Each structure stands twice: as structure tokens, then as C-alpha cells.
Amino acid sequence: MGSPNRLGDIEITDPQAMRALAHPVRLAILDHLMRQGPSTATKLAPDVGATPSVTSWHLRHLAGFGLVRDSEPGADRRQRTWEAVGRGFRFEAPEDPADEAGASAARLLSQQMFLRYADRPSRWAAEVEPQLDAQWRQLSGLAHTRLVLSAEELAAVEDGIERLLAPYVTRAPAERPADGRGVQLMRYVLPEATAEHAQDAQDQAENRNRAEDAHEQAGESA
């Protein structure tokens, strides 16, 4: 991994595990268990959009990759209580450019995560923000900052953020303030394309458009 795991996250390096998690239901299951704590397949089902039996199958699949485990083993295996192995997870694209399988799996999981969380800020703004008192409303919202950094500097920024967050993320529940409440800090780290890459993307888009136009014209001629 590129930086120390200060937050105690599960580190996913196996491309097969990344692909296993890159599924809407499995991602929803793991997210729910990490945020809400242990649960059964029956209780999870309505929140993850699947039947209890399908949810149970996905839980066993996640368990096979060490992402969830039994929380309260009991005699009735039909009502297993599951928990997330860690409080969060992290993954990275492989540094080896020849590792196409790893790069593809990381990209797939990243895309699924963007899709899952894309509407969370707008839902918060519509459903939660109006209910907050003035103090919490002033502290909340979106910050959009553009920087010009080297790759090493960006890594240092990320490490600094995690260094600051770690004491709050890892402290025991008994150490949390009595007036504390859950807060989601969503970080989008989006390096911009270089001019060369931007031109390549534009050329590819133009080629696709020409191919589509040619296909439509061929269809009209037929």
C-alpha cells in the first residue's frame, strides 16, 4: 500500500477479492455492516435490495475473501449473525504496469464505489441538512480545492489527512464524546489528465462519433 494503514482498514490486494466486492449488493452489505454493526441476512436484505437467501449467499462469498465473519456463532446456522472484519477497507491499483488483472479489478471496484456513493451528498443536502441546528450546519458541506502537486506531494497530503483522522477513527466507543454524532468525511482525490492524455481522450471520442455516424448512414442506405 502507498501509505501506512493508520485507520485500521482491511487492505485488499487480491484482484479476485476486488472483483468479488465490485458488486452492488456485496458493496452494500459490507458498507452496512461497517456502519451499523453486526446483522443477519434477513435484517440486511431490505437495505441491500436482495432476498434473504441471496443476501446470505453474498455474505458467504464475502466471507470466503476474509471481508466478513461470524459475529455470534450459534447452533442455528440459518440465522447467522455477520460482522465486518474491519471498520473500513482500502485498495490500490498495482504499481506493476504489467499487472493488467490487478489494474482491471481495482478500476472495476473503484467504478462501483463511485456509482454507489455518487448521490450521497445530494441526498444528505435534501434529507439531513435541513434538520441540522446552526452549529452543525456551519461545519458541514462541500469543500472543493484544486492543487498542483507531484505524486509524492499528493501521497504526503493523503498521509497527513489520515494521520489527523486516525485518533478519532480508532478510539474506543467509550472514549467518544457524549454529544458526538456520526460524521461522514468523503474524500475524492481526482488527479487531472495531462494535456497529452486529454488530447488522446478527445481523439478517441471523435473516432467513436465518426464510427457511430458511419454506422447510422450505412443503416439508412440499407
Q: What's this model, at a glance?
A:
Helix content is 54%, strand content 7%. It is mainly alpha-helical and 222 residues long.
Sequence-ordered SSE layout with sheet pairings:
Blueprint: E1 10-12, H1 15-21, H2 24-36, E2 39-40, H3 41-48, H4 52-64, E3 68-70, E4 81-84, E5 89-91, H5 100-117, H6 120-127, H7 134-139, H8 151-170, H9 195-221
Parallel strand pairs: 1-5
Antiparallel strand pairs: 2-4, 3-4
Structure description:
With 222 residues, the protein is mostly helical. Helices cover 54% and strands 7% of the residues. The strands form 2 sheets. The protein has a 3-stranded antiparallel β-sheet. A two-stranded parallel ribbon has the order 1-5. It is globular, with a radius of gyration of 22 Å.
What is the end-to-end distance?
Answer: 55 Å
Rg over alpha carbons: 22 Å
Q: Tell me the quaternary state.
A: single chain
Spatial shape: globular
Helix content: 40-55%
The secondary structure category is mainly alpha
Mean pLDDT: 89
Number of strands: 5
> Strand share of the residues?
5-15%
What order do the SSEs take from the amino end to the carboxyl end, as H and E?
EHHEHHEEEHHHHH
Order of strands across the biggest sheet? 2-4-3
Number of helices: 9
Low-confidence stretches: none
| Biggest sheet features | 3 strands, antiparallel
Properties at a glance:
222 residues, mainly alpha, three-stranded antiparallel beta sheet, two-stranded parallel ribbon, 9 helices, 5 strands, 7% strand, globular
